[in-house]
Design a protein that fits this description.
Layout lengths: L1 H24 L3 E6 L13 E8 L7 E8 L10 E5 L8 H7 L3 E3 L11 E3 L9 E5 L9 E2 L7 E2 H18 L8 E6 L2 H17 L8 E7 L5 H6 L1 H7 L5 H11 L11 H14 L33 H5 L14 H10 L2 H7 L18 E2 L6 H9 L3 E7 L7 H10 L4 E10 L2 E9 L3 E6 L6 H4 L1 H12 L5
C-alpha cells in the first residue's frame, strides 16, 4: 500500500509539473466576440473580437494589454495577419481603427450630448488582411496594469510585452499560426515596430515554443532618426514654399545645416531660426494644408528625447486660437467625438472593458512613465534587411512632423541598390504618390496629399498601396 501511495503521489506531482508547463503556454487572456456597437446601425458587417492578454510581471498577469481583432473580410484562413501599433507613445490603437485603416469611422456631427455615430469605412485594410489593434504600451487606451510597477516601461520593455502578447494570442488563435504575419504601425512606432519584428525573428531562430510566420513589417510616417528628422525640417519647408530662398540659404549657412543643438553664441543662426519660426507659425504640422484647431485632443508631438532644436517651441507657436466657421471644418474634432464615445458606459460594456480598470479613456496618454530608449532605429532596419524581410515605408508628403525627405534620407543611407527607380503610382487613373524599391526588399512610397498619418487623409490611395504591396505586386 505504501508503494502504491508513493506511486500515486509521484504521478500527482508529475501531473502538477505538466499542468504548470501547459499553463505557461496557455494565454492568460480574456476575449469576446462583438456583433453590435453603440452608435452603429445594425449588426457589424465584419467579425470583431476584443480582449486582454496578460504579460510581464512576476505573475505574468500584471500588465493587461487590450486589443481589437478584426478578421479579414476576404479570406481570413489565408490572408495575412497584421499587428497594428499607434504611435505617441501612449496613443490608443483605436486611432488606427477609427481614423486610419480600420472598418469604422466616427460620423462628423456636432456633439449634442447624445452618443456619436459610427459608419462603415469602405477603404479598410481589413478588406485583405486580419488586423490586431493593440493598445501599447501599458497605460495606453484600455490597457492597464494590476500593479503600479507595471506602468514603468519603455521602448525595450513594451516591445518585449508585445512579443509575449503575440505568442500568447497566437496560442489562443491557432487557426492563424500559419498565416503570413506582419508587424505594422505609424509615427513613434517607427522606433518599436522594427524591434518587435527583430524579437519575433530572434525567437523563431532560437526555436521558441511558438513559431510566428513573420514575413516583414510596415511603417507609416515613422520617426526613426530624430536628429535627421529635425535637420530636414528646414529643407522641407523650403521645398514646400513655406520659407523664402533667401532665408533658406541664410539659415543653412549660419547654422551649418545643423538645427538640433544650436550654439547660443551663434547670433545669426538664432536670428534665422526665429525668422523660420515666424514663417511657419500657425501651420498644422500634421498636414500643412489643413486648418489648425485648438480644441479636442491634438495630434501628439513626436517624442524625441531631450533636445534643443528648431522644433522645441512648436507648442508656443502652434497651439494658439484660430477662428473657424464650424467645428466640423476641423479634422481634430473627430478625436473629441471619440472620447465622448469611448467614455460612454454602453460602449464600454459592448467592448467588454474590465470594470474599474481605467478611469477616463484618453486617445493619447501624455503622462505615462515611459522611457524613450531607442534614439535611432536604423540599426534594426539593417538587421532585418540582412535577414531578407520585406518592408513598406510610406509617408504622407504634407506631413511636417516627420517630413518624407527625412525618411527618404535614412533609407538612402542604408546604401542598398535601387531595383525599381523613382516613379509615380496610380490609383483610378490619378497619381497616388511616388515610390522606389531597393534590393533589400524595402519599398518607399509617398502618398500625395497625405499627412501624419497618410491613411487618415488619403484612405482610398492607401488601401490600394497596401493591397498591392501585401500581394507582392508593384505599387
Amino acid at each position: 500500500m505504501a508503494g502504491s501511495a508513493e506511486k500515486l503521489l509521484l504521478c500527482f506531482n508529475m501531473f502538477l509539473v505538466h499542468l504548470q508547463l501547459w499553463s505557461f503556454l496557455l494565454p492568460i487572456s480574456y476575449s469576446a466576440t462583438v456583433t453590435y456597437l453603440p452608435g452603429f446601425q445594425g449588426p457589424l458587417p465584419f467579425e470583431l473580437e476584443t480582449g486582454y492578454v496578460g504579460v510581464g510581471g512576476e505573475s505574468e498577469e500584471d500588465v493587461q494589454l487590450f486589443y481589437y481583432f478584426i478578421k479579414s473580410e476576404k479570406n481570413p484562413k489565408k490572408d495575412p495577419v497584421l499587428l497594428w501599433l499607434t504611435g505617441g507613445p501612449g496613443c490608443s490603437s483605436l486611432s488606427g481603427l477609427l481614423y486610419e485603416i480600420g472598418p469604422l469611422r466616427l460620423v462628423m456631427e456636432e456633439y449634442t450630448g447624445s452618443l456619436p455615430n459610427l459608419s462603415y469605412n469602405p477603404y479598410s485594410w481589413t478588406k485583405v488582411a486580419s488586423i490586431i489593434f493593440v493598445d501599447s504600451p501599458v497605460g495606453t487606451g484600455f490597457s492597464y496594469s494590476r500593479s503600479s510597477q507595471g506602468y514603468q516601461t519603455g521602448d525595450f520593455e513594451s516591445s518585449k510585452h508585445l512579443y509575449q502578447f503575440l505568442s500568447k494570442w497566437m496560442i489562443g488563435h491557432p487557426e492563424f499560426v500559419e498565416n503570413p504575419f506582419y508587424a505594422a504601425g505609424d509615427s513613434y512606432s517607427g522606433r518599436t515596430v522594427p524591434l518587435v519584428t527583430k524579437l519575433i525573428s530572434d525567437g523563431n531562430e532560437a526555436g521558441s515554443e511558438l513559431f510566428i510566420n513573420i514575413k516583414g513589417y510596415i511603417l507609416g510616417n515613422p520617426t526613426t532618426d530624430p536628429v535627421l528628422e529635425s535637420n530636414k525640417l528646414v529643407p522641407y519647408a523650403h521645398g514646400m514654399g513655406l520659407i523664402s530662398d533667401e532665408l533658406y540659404e541664410s539659415v543653412k549657412n549660419s547654422c551649418g545645416e545643423n538645427y538640433v543643438q544650436i550654439d547660443p553664441t551663434n547670433v545669426q543662426c538664432l536670428k534665422d531660426i526665429q525668422s523660420f519660426h515666424k514663417c511657419i507659425s500657425g501651420l498644422n504640422t500634421a498636414h500643412i494644408l489643413e486648418p489648425l484647431c485648438d480644441f479636442g485632443s491634438p495630434k501628439p508631438k513626436e517624442r524625441v528625447g531631450d533636445r534643443r532644436s528648431l522644433t522645441q517651441n512648436y507648442k508656443e507657436y502652434f497651439l494658439v486660437p484660430h477662428p473657424s466657421n464650424s467645428v466640423l471644418d476641423c479634422r481634430d474634432y473627430a478625436y473629441y467625438l471619440t472620447e465622448c464615445w469611448t467614455n460612454d458606459n454602453s460602449v464600454r460594456n459592448a467592448l467588454h472593458i474590465h470594470k474599474g480598470s481605467i478611469g477616463k479613456w484618453q486617445r493619447c496618454h501624455r503622462d505615462l512613465p515611459y522611457s524613450h530608449e531607442i534614439q535611432n532605429s536604423i540599426q534594426y532596419h539593417v538587421n532585418l534587411s540582412k535577414k531578407g524581410y520585406r518592408s513598406l515605408i510610406y509617408s504622407g508628403d504634407h506631413d511636417m512632423m516627420v517630413p518624407f525627405v527625412a525618411t527618404e534620407a535614412w533609407i538612402k543611407s542604408l546604401n542598398y541598390s535601387i531595383i525599381d527607380e523613382w516613379r509615380s503610382w496610380i490609383v483610378e487613373g490619378q497619381i497616388g504618390g511616388y515610390t522606389r524599391t531597393y534590393s533589400n526588399r524595402m519599398t518607399f512610397a509617398t502618398v500625395k496629399g497625405g499627412g501624419h498619418t497618410a491613411p487618415e487623409f488619403k484612405p482610398k490611395e492607401c488601401i490600394a498601396m497596401f493591397n498591392r504591396w501585401i500581394s507582392e505586386e508593384p505599387l
